[in-house]
Each structure stands twice: as structure tokens, then as C-alpha cells.
Amino acid sequence: MSIATILPTGESALRVTGTTGDREADWRVVHALARRVTSDGVDGVLSAIPTYESVLVEFDATTTGYAAMTAVLQALLAEIDPAAPLPGPSRRFVVPVLYGGDGGPDLGHVAAVTGLTPEGVVAAHTAPTYVVRCLGAPGGSPMLDGPSLPVPVPRLRSPRTHVPQGAVSLAGRQATITPAAAPGGWCLIGRTPYTVLDLAAEPLVPYAPGDTLRFERIDEARFEELAGRRLAPEDATR
């Protein structure tokens, strides 16, 4: 049984989508493939961009083509066990957050639409340990499943033209952090004092898909104390 489909996307890319029928297994398949493609240095591959259940593999069309690249990807997929955890250790991150106030102006709105109190929203947001599913926009935002709320959180009717770096937000049944200032329509419930994006570093953000992350409530004094520090893993095991 095939665990993924491979389809042309544009003139120089292939989209590989997990087809195991299990969302978690599909996520493992596409991220394992992305790691294999990038770590093995496959000839002609320019990049691999994994999401929840698909990975876009971009290639140099002047040196290879759809047929050759499809054969390479099929061979790599044949070596992937959908039930196996992602290769390599997972790092743990703790993100301090000052909830509400100027950094979290939508906390009350989220409480209203979910039927919780603001304290209930904070409790729900700080409860789980999140898995970084993939990196999104802007600037490598960690895409996280959760928290567990009674109903999905709708996006704002009028997106903001400026969301500051460090904003902690919710939309639908997802959570994220904004590494770089940008427009946005997610509901802002808090802000971390940490700097997440480092344009001088490689990679630009310290976490990767498969790492875990949890949020920790802090007060204003602690926010000022931590302001400007860089987000780093609790355990430097990689």
C-alpha cells in the first residue's frame, strides 16, 4: 500500500501527500521524507517544505525532471515506516507569556466566544505540551495544535496591519507565536518577552517540527526582566 501520493506542482516542484488515512502518521511520513531529502543532499533538490500532511519538494529543472525526482522520492518513501517516530531527539522549549493587557488585547474576546473566563483561556493555553507541527508565516511561526477550547476561535473580522514580534495568538484550533512583526488576523492573547527570530542565525528560528513547546505565565516584572533574551531549548541535546 502506498503511504503517499506524488504530484507535479508548477514547473519545478513535486507535492508529496501522506495517504495512510491517519493524520498523525501522514505528518510523520512527510516530515521524515523532508528530513531525508535535505539531510541526504539529494542531487537537484533545492528545498523541502513540509506542512501538516504534505511536503513540497522543489528541484532544479535544469538538472533533473519530474520522472527522475519522482523515482528518488518513491525510493525514499519505501524506507519510511509511518508508525516510527521522527528521527533524531526532540527538544523542549518553554515560552514565558504575559497574558492580556496591551500584548494580549483579544484575551477577553476569546473568553467571550469560547464561553470561558480570561483565566480559563489562560489555563487552557498553558496546560498542554504542544508539538511543533510545521513552520508557517511570518518568519517561521511554530504551528501548534490546540489548546483544547470548547469551540474554535474565529479569526478577526478586520485583520491588524501590525502584529508585533513575540505575539502569542489563537485561531481555529491552532496556536502560534509571531517571530517577526507582520499583519495578522489571529486573536492576540499575550506576548512573550523572548526574541524568537534571529536573522544572523541558521536556522532563523531555534525550533523545528517535532520539537515540543509549552507556555508559562509570567507577570510584568518578569516580562521586563526577560525582555530581549533569545528563545532557546531547555535541553541542548542536538
TrEMBL record:
Residues 4-207 form the Carboxyltransferase domain. SMART domains: AHS1. It comes from the Bacteria. One of its GO terms (molecular function) is ATP binding. Signal peptide: none annotated. Keywords: ATP-binding, Hydrolase, Nucleotide-binding. InterPro entries: CT_C_D, Cyclophilin-like_dom_sf, PxpB. This is Carboxyltransferase domain-containing protein. It comes from Microbacterium betulae.
